[in-house]
């Protein structure tokens, strides 16, 4: 029902904005119908040589892992990318390529998987995110710190290239917030942030001490249409799209003026692949900020209302999440990533909103038709 209104709004809006054409909506929808995640127009061609990395992704059933597996499989071949997690995968994931159970706290099992599958790249996505971490500090310590130690030791012992994402949450209230440079004070006040600073420092230490090929990007809040966020402070910016399309209203748990760095998932996953493929001698650092846009809930709602003029948003601030967000960067500076390995984002706020709404509307129409 609201989907129809949304399409009507989109068409109406198309008349007023040259950037938002019906053709674009339709062509984006076509792209989505042939692939569940769309990666912009610039994804690299599949590798043809036999020197593919053999990749293991830990924590692969969260918001980011399935999309990354899809991108890497397109590049390196389906069987060269193994997705793993401690949860049971849905059928479409299970049927789309190798999946294996792996608990990062079980170091012997993890080592066996690496050895038996001749793994050469380890993408370490398992983590407990900011909001869940504040509710369960013991679990966050275990997964984010003990788990990371297992990963670094195994990666070092077997000569792997290892990617560990960090986050805007690795900064805190005493960091410069607008903009936040690569190198500055990092005194986060969440267990998530503390564990990510620990990961950055441990990885860099292993790189200098043992020659580990450690690579780390500080991601902003990631926005995706067909995977759900796992319990973070930036989750509102994903949930708002789904709820708005379904019901036409949304209750936001952050203040309307909370400015945070955000990124569309396609940019995030492409950045990860490009960074992993960057020649080691181009990397002057092992930990980089990457950035695309910053917006407040108010900015996002205004952009969405260009398509959904009836959208109603109310604010019911969660004090714990608001305190976390108030200590995070407002704008992330990523000069070094752009300079050293050519990072360039593709999605700004208007592209993000168009793409998310098109994607969610199309999926919802398809579900209604079935
Ligand atoms: N999604 C975002 O906005 C951002 C994510 N990141 C980082 O990117 C990585 C991936 O993030 P998401 O996919 O959003 O996280 P998520 O919370 O959606 O997924 C994490 C996954 O880790 C798995 N996991 C938990 N304990 C485990 C264990 N003991 N062994 C193996 N797997 C375990 C969970 O089952 C879950 O599927 C994380 O390291 C996160 O910190 C960084 C910044 C932003
Ligand atoms: C920005 C992140 O790391 C994550 N989305 C969170 O909000 O915890």
UniProtKB/TrEMBL annotation:
Lineage top rank: taxon: Eukaryota
CDD domains according to UniProt: TDH_SDR_e (cd05272)
Chain ranges of the NAD-dependent epimerase/dehydratase domain: 55-290
Reactions performed catalytically: L-threonine + NAD(+) = (2S)-2-amino-3-oxobutanoate + NADH + H(+)
Pathway the protein takes part in: Amino-acid degradation; L-threonine degradation via oxydo-reductase pathway; glycine from L-threonine: step 1/2
One Gene Ontology MF term: L-threonine 3-dehydrogenase activity
One GO BP annotation of this record: L-threonine catabolic process
Residue ranges of the TM segments: none
EC number assigned by the record: 1.1.1.103
Enzyme class: oxidoreductase
InterPro entries: Epimerase_deHydtase, NAD(P)-bd_dom_sf, NAD(P)_epim/dehydratase
Protein function: Catalyzes the NAD(+)-dependent oxidation of L-threonine to 2-amino-3-ketobutyrate, mediating L-threonine catabolism.
Similarity-based family: Belongs to the NAD(P)-dependent epimerase/dehydratase family.
Record protein name field: L-threonine 3-dehydrogenase, mitochondrial
UniProt organism field: Notothenia coriiceps
